[in-house]
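Good morning,

Both structures are done.
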Amino acid sequence: MHTESPPILLTFGLSDPTSATGVQADLLTFASMGGYGVSVLTGYSSQDSRSCDDVQPIDPDWIGDQARMLLEDMPVAAFKVGSAVNADNVAAIAEIVADYDETPLVVAPDFGLAGEHLLSTDELREATASLLVPQASVLVVSPQSAVALAQTITENENLALDEAVSILLENGCEFVLISDGNAPQFTHTLYSDGGIVREDAWDRPAHNVAGAIDTLAAAVTAMLANGLAVPEAVREAQEYLQQVLENAFRPGMGRHFPDRFFWARTEETEQDDSGNSGAQA
């Protein structure tokens, strides 16, 4: 009987009922890449493939209690933090992961859900920059989010991207991975305090696909849990991301979703083709 546990990965994030983003998406990515995902919710969202209507935050005490129960029971190999929803939740998560500073931490914040149901985006950014970024093994962000985070540290409203990345690294983050989906190609640039570690460009997907940064960050988390160094983990994660984007599907009337188990359907097709060929012969 096989009893060895796969790497256990803990994700903190928002519940997305569509599974395109948030903890549901992370769990799919972890499983696809050979990990076992456990999760701590930071909030619930009401959304479909087109838009998000509302978000209800989880009490930060519940976040702490649930995470402690998991961590006292299971050996977690890596953490991922996605949408923390508000500043209080950021503080709760930061306190937890600080007790496990040898465990890789991937931070992929989402500042796109601010509204009347949340604390201001500025407070969320400030908490993320001051409490989570300094602990991050890898910060995975868009160019706009990188600049916004750095601005909360320096209060300089005219930062270039390179300046912003330098500030984030000086603030304690080990690596910054900039994922730019607005360039002519889909580019991913990994920085350390020594400068650019690697820079990769990929063909842009043909459709508007939800959850690209969530998928990339979760894949990096899974690869770190499997023992890869950060540059290699980032490379493997990009290759996975490109495949899930190329195989994206449209389940509803809105955006396309990544097919995180594209390989399973590819194998099924190959087996069917092989079986059909044999029958015809």
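Second structure follows.
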Amino acid sequence: MKDKLPIFLKTTVSLGLLVFILTRIDLNQVLSRLQFLSLPFVLFALLFYTGCQWLSCLRWQVVLKSAGYHIPIHYLLSSYFAGMFVSIFLPSSVGGDVYRVYRITKVIDAPEVAFASVFLERFTGLAAVFALALVGIPPALKIIGSWDIVLLFLVCAGIIWGGFLLIASPLLLSWSRPWLSKIRLGSVCDRLDKVQIIVIQYLKHRQSLGLAIAISFVIQLSIIFYQYLLAQQLQIPISYLELLVFTPISIVVTLMPISLGGLGIQEGLWAYLFTRIGLTAEQAVLLSLTFTILGWILALPGAIILLLDSKGLKTTK
């Protein structure tokens, strides 16, 4: 029951925000613009987004290679799709990243390395997002004209980086060990000790680290371009540069684990930001939901991977 409480709270937050937003916009206007989405464009968009996922797997492969493991890109891609499906359609205590760790552990039989590889793949991606967001703060301030969103971004960034530092910093882990032991999480500290050794070793591979971060910048810029293409198809007059300012800040805020994958929070945040540049809340919600729904469609092949994994598990038993 306790495990289901966070899921219930996240669902309540997402649904509550969506209902609040959707009851305050013209839904007919949103639905009418969906006619601009043609089937060829949807197929192209899904293919383009798949390319972004492939780049994420290439980044993951670079991280694993630095630890001495070579895993084929097609296996990493299937793991990524399975993780996406778990995160979106099977909200539980077992998130998509945890499932990716499980799939990699099956191949290399080194759970700490598998965990560290997923952690570092996420870390390099977030490093690029934070860098773009920080660069975008001055123009965001100029456009928005107030500090509220910037302060929200800084608070969320601080919390997220605090969590990452707890995993990566031996000093912070040593300081928090007594507190974690009191709540019976001492074994987690022992595992994190091993993970930290791997993480520190990886950070010494400057060439691999630089390549992974470079790939991360390409991924983020590509995803923003993907959103720009969606906006143009939906006839929403927003520029690539405006999305380049807004999207990284939005990503950081929606990473906070208080909703289902940022659903509801992203729509509300985009509505606030879009109206500051002369667009409508309807246009913001339309673009956000279209982006989200296409992501759901793209994650559907992950169900096949999960089904095959479950059959393989039953066979081994």
